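ugh ok fine here u go
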Amino acid sequence: SLSGGATPRPRKLPLKGREVVIPAAFEGVGRASFAELCDRPLGSLDYLAIAHAFHTLIVDDIPVLKAEQRNTTKRFITLIDTLYDNNVKLLASAAAPPAELYRAEEGNEAFAFHRTVSRLIEMAGTEYLARPHGNADSRASGETTGLVET
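structure:
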């Protein structure tokens, strides 16, 4: 329904001589699987490009993460931080509620994941959903991303 019945198409976001591809996109809404976003070697600049390009992101199939999935967990934390900081609306399907998505009790990722859980819960609230897309600094400066749709 977010696409207005149109068929979403892949969108390539050029970034530093390469491309970040979102498999399905239409009018500011992007859709990708967790694996496409967090199992690949993407980083904060990639997630920032996504956050600038889309006001809403649909993420499918978020699994329960284990301690040995350290890099994937770090990427997920960075993705959520970036979406949150840029007021991107998140629709997601997950194997468990936010507080049960990471199965480790100690280490840097466990500490950081507590913040991620808090952010995921806040992102589902009406106050967050009412915020305009983008962060306050980029809206105040009229910043553009320089991203072009291909």
